[in-house]
Amino acid sequence: METKLLEDIAFKGKEANHNLNFRQWNRSKHAQYFTSMNASNAIYNGLKSKVKDMKTLKVFDPTAGSGRLLIPWKRAGADVLGVELEESAAKVLKHNIGAKYSRTGDLMKYAPYLENQEFDLVLTNPPFGIVWNIENDDFQYETKRYGKTIESQSATLEIAIHSLSYDGILVAILPTSTFQNDKDTRMVRYLHDQTNVLLRLTVDDMFKEEYGIAIQVDIVIARKSSDCDRDRQEMVCGHASSFEDISRAIDKLDIDISPNHGRWETPIPDISNLTVFSIGNRLELNVSGVSGDASATSLVDFYDETMEAYSPVLGTMTGIMDAFVSSPALMTSGPQKALDFFSRAGFEANMPESAKARLEQLKKKYDFLSLPLFPPKSHQLLAYFLDKPYKTLKSVKDKDGNTVFYKGRMYAIRPAWIRNMQVVKVENVQDSKGKPVKMTTSLDRGYLSILVKGETGEVRYDEPDTEKIKEFVEVFGLPQVRTMDDAVR
Are residues 68 and 200 in the same domain? Predict the structure, then answer.
């Protein structure tokens, strides 16, 4: 068993790697240069005395390869987790640290699950120079390049830092040139903003013995903190000529690695186990929502989280369920708008006659109960404009003489509620860990805004602008609103 384990630890990735120089590797998605076991053990030996409780320590490697950086920690009893894209390496990873602690697949797909996991220690030797597409990613990257792309080292580092607990320790193996070239400036700035870099240890030829490439790298050790943290330490720079030098340099650091949690059951799924299933598109609309094929309703939930539409009830952009399918939306706009939306989205949607009858009953009740008890004042009547066309009472021209509205024509009106957050108080307080933080109290002094599609484009009338509101009332008048007394006479 020991012989097999050693063979797995020595796994080097694709045999073709030794034919690539370091810059060529940067252009290759599948080239792999794993940290040697000697280097992994040296890092472990330097840090192990800093750990308060190894049995509750949470350790993570976002690009784990065959698990070399994690193996010493797993053997010491820590809870470890590794993610690896390459299936051949992932098989070895599972053998070395256990399937329970391994995840196979694209790190960027795992990013939303890894965010705020609060690992105590993150170790990474990220792939370098690979351009990754982030167009459809939920994770918000701060070091992305032009367009919708990011370099692999930047993405890995961001995900690694996001997955750390506050005061957690990051160990990253980066080419020394990272801190010298222009293209990685944003990544280096992000590293210093999000962490307190404690050590930059330059190591010559870390990959030469195993892979035959001469590349100088820095072992970077950092503590996650904000750039305003008063306890930030000065960065130590050094040079290591041997693995013993690595251990000694790390051991000199004045840091504690204190686990924040006990042993945990990770909620991170293995996306390699997800299966593809056919999408059904049948939906049935009713007064309480939608029903239909499981895959279709799941897709509706997805659309509700990722798409926005105007809600005639709330007067703002909301998810599609609030905008089209909620009972108030159905009673305000009717079911056809919801059915039209689902049809455009590729669903076969319908509303049974029984559901339509029930909706009509609810609408009558809603219309009655929403009547005001007393006649609204003039300024209150603005709130009774609906999302629909209204006829003008007069023509209006702009300052250049262009006609904005013609008398007697119908123009689409859309009322909206504009949020206007204002800071009313800022206090200096302490968080649960005694760290000084600022607590801001804000109030939403929102207002009504009415958008009208005129002849020259969209015209906006904000409630606080008295002159604009006066113009709007002169053009469109005010709606006639029945009261409760009118209804019961």
Answer: yes
